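Appendix B. Raw example, untouched.
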Amino acid sequence: MTIPTKHEVYERLQYHLRKAQEEAATLAHLSNADGDAPGAILARGWLNVSESFKLTQQIVQQLQTGNKRIMQ
């Protein structure tokens, strides 16, 4: 077994964050498709989760590139 590189681990992390963001967006869409008020509320919640994963992806990318100003 070889020791993973930082780049390999970073790529895997970004992949999983991207997949999680896509799944949260899909859940938002499916919840909104219910056409009722509880579904719309859940859809907004899942959309917020999706957006949080996008932000996390950006922060991870900045960390990977060594950006000193992560949060603005």
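End of appendix B.
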